[in-house]
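Model it.
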Amino acid sequence: MTDTLLLLTFVPLVPWPVLAVLGIMLLAVSIFGIARRARGSLFRLLCFMVVLLTLAGPRHQREQRTIQGDVAIVVVDRSPSQMVEDRTAQTDAALNAIETTLGREKNLELRIVETDRTPNNASGDTDGGTRLIEALALAAAEVPSTRFAGAILISDGQVHDADDAAMLSTIPRGPIHVLLSGEKQSFDRRLVIEKVPAYGLVGQQTEVTFHVEQTAGPGISIRPVSVTLSVDGRYVGTLDVRPGRSTSFQFELEHADTSVIELSVEAAEGELSLINNTGVAAINGVRDRLRVLLVSGQPHAGERMWRNLLKSDPAVDLVHFTILRPPEKSDFTPIRELSLITFPTFELFDIRINEFDLIVFDRYVVRHVLSPRYFRNIGNYMREGGAILVAMGPEFAGPSSLYETPLGPLLPSRPTGNIVEQGFVPRLTDDGLRHPVTAGLTGAGTGAGTGIGDPAESTPDWGRWFRQVETVSRSGTVLMQGAGSRPLLTVDRVENGRIGVLTSDHIWLWARGYEGGGPQAELVRRLAHWLMKEPALEEERLSAVLKDGALEVTRRSLGTPPPVVSITTPAGKTQTLSLETTAPGRAAGLAPGLAMGRFAVSAPGVYRVDDGTLSALAAVGSLNPLEYRDLRATGDHLAPVSERAGGGVFWLSDGLPEIRRVKPDNKASGSEWIGLRANQSYVVSGIADLALMPWWLSAALVLVLLFAAWWREGR
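Modeled.
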């Protein structure tokens, strides 16, 4: 829109102070002459005025002005808390009405900004809640202050940067109005985790402190409510707690690595939302120290390998028991000279056996050092959750075999009495290619071997072993084969415990680097941690981790993994995800061992993955987002901001207020209306300038007036 304005301006030829002094002097002379009734004084006064006016430089200007339209900003809250009740519908209806109303206004531009708090999935950015003021400040930074008509915020009021003074200071002067979605009075119950340790010791009590908050609602009494605790999706227990009172829950961490703790309070009728009825925390489980008992039946070349391997880990407390002198050996050496102390067999295998995380039998020979009672204790220790690793030697095939003790029925392998002494390269079985204990071992080759004559590409790049005890598998899973495809490494579960059997005592050749050696340290470490139930080494495992903005779901199995899993989002919606199977190795007919899929995430919180048998939890962004901590609609946060800016706060449930245009200095809100400033900002596009007293006109007037004064004096 273009407008024309006529202006009278002055461009003085001398400074204004000089012009003022000169004017006073000439005026005084003129008044003195008039007072004395001197002839020609009036003409002199007019002459003086022409001179002063000429020196003042009066000019006539004509400005061509282009009117600039004002800008009104509407910030729409699209955060997750806006999805409860009918807030989304209220917000959309209000936005449509505002667009329609302001669309009819002349010289007004409407800019709409929608904001949410979608997490930075690629980096797992910490949740910062709803930052409505930041969105307004960024949008207003592009608007000149002379064109800012005001802002309208459509939100439920749960804004987490309303007290950000730095952002508020950048917003131009103008009214800020708030339109609140949701209901004024609503009942909600939420669980708040107050204190949770970052680390916890495996097998020891860990404590988490929490309380339940709830607003008063019709028919709702402050009575005890039930809170359920689960760890990694496993139910632990239930407590009845009174709302508003801090309560502690104690439990044991069962494994190392991250455990997801979930506390859930029971739902109430008429509750606003169930999203914040759950509190989640992550605790890193650490083992205090691994207690390992190594029982060596007799000295041999590989004994030092076991000791060095276990002692190299500073987190391992090793008790090494080597049988150097069997009871049947008799000579004339005095008893007091045989040893400094008596080995505490009763204390180790009767009183404190359950304190060990792992018991290793290295080429054990039955020499009646350990009584049958101790072996029964060892068997009970394994059934109740203990871990045993047996490394066999030639003695396992003879009458003094460990198989002949009460521990024998629990072993997954039965000796045939034969000992194979020939060179062979250990190979992975089909199950070994998929089992996490042996899958991906360094130099394992591309496929499972079946004995002599395999293609070169399936032969592991490992050194040879030269002795193996022939056994027959009775149970468990064979992971490695030796000479003639005989079982070399077998693992098995016995009730709540686990056992591993290695039918050769030549693993020490790998440690010495014979013919290039092999991954003995990696193999033993994995085997020991599998025996101690490390979750990451479970052969049947479902996991979900956040990678590049999506959940990467992996299902590991020794059989055929389920093709589909269900995923429950933090909002409680369940979706399905198809998994693609991959087969490790090159063996024909090999059943898939891994199935993987990716699921795009859009909100912070805990995602639950389930395949009907196994379940897993994955945390995205903040485990307890600010958005879900309080879902009630409120004007408490934004009211001070609106009041300082001269705006108003209105509930959409009461109806949309009338929108008016007001002058910049007028009141901008009323009981049923809101105002946007009409700034009338403009840009000068052209100027026409004309002098009102040009020099020739001034000179002519001065000469005429001087002549008139002379003529009057001469009469």
